Amino acid sequence: MAAGITVPLNDDQAHYILRVLRLGQGDAIAVFNEISGAWQGRLAVTGKRGAVVLETQIQTPQKPHDLWLLLSPLKKEAWDFALEKATELNVGAIQPVLMEYTQNARVNEDRAKANLIEASQQCERTNVPEFFAPKKLEAVLATWDKSRLLYAALEREDAAPAAQVFDPAKPGAILIGPEGGFSTREKELLQQYDFVRPISLGPLILRAETAAIAAIVVWEAIQHQE
Predict the structure, then answer these.
(1) Pick the residue with more confidence: 62 or 127?
(2) How many structural domains does the chain have?
(3) Residues 142 and 92 in one domain
(4) CA nearest 123: which of 88, 89, 156, 79?
(5) Is the confidence at residue 27, as pLDDT, over 80?
(6) Do 50 and 82 belong to one domain?
């Protein structure tokens, strides 16, 4: 993107901007991508379609944290909430993980990606987290890049507090189980891999979406101290 470039709107964007927000010819609007950052422009309307004529760069490209969130799919509202907040907290990628106690094994990937885009727009993030196709826990572990540490949030297990275990200097990922927690077999499976680091998020039983947010915030706080 650059000054003077015209960026066409797709059908969904045109409907939302022209029909829902009711913006019109010459109104200010911002667009972004992960390569060019965010740009301020003016809306140009032709019939039912529209485009944005770029004027000024208002934000340079940002980099997401080198942190992924691995989360067992949740019921609709909790799932949407977790995806939105993980985006606002700048995670780099999200991987749905299917586990024994997963309550919602069917993931609408298009809806999830749309939620991530909307959350990125809302918080003025210039990139969108990558969203991977759902995988079973066994498949995730078997194909894992060992250079990325995997922090497994285990409730009331013999694990050190997350703040003592996290190492933001290295690529990382946080694994949050379903509402029913990790099964005994899954806990035993996780113990077989050297790249897995068990963590505790405290003595209370947290909802999965709460655990995800809490873990990301702790990781971020440690990163900002370094």
Answers:
(1) 127
(2) 2
(3) yes
(4) 88
(5) yes
(6) no
Question: Which of 181-206 are b and which e, b meaning 16 or more Cβ less than 10 Å from the residue's Cβ?
Answer: bbeeebeeebeeeeebbbbbbeeeeb
Shared domain for 43 and 73, answered yes or no, is: no
Q: Is residue 166 part of a domain?
A: yes
User: Using CA atoms, how far apart are residues 35 and 6, in angstroms rounded to an integer?
Assistant: 16
This prediction's pTM: 0.86
Same domain, 93 and 42: no
Q: Note the pLDDT tens digit of each residue in 182-199.
A: 999 999 999 999 999 999
Q: What percent of the chain has pLDDT over 90?
A: 72
What lies within 8 Å, CB to CB, of 53 at 6+ separation is 4, 5, 6, 7, 41, 42, 44
One domain, residues 74 and 38: no
Structural domain harbouring 157: 67-225
Query: Which two structure tokens, joined as six digits, stand for 141?
Result: 């572990």
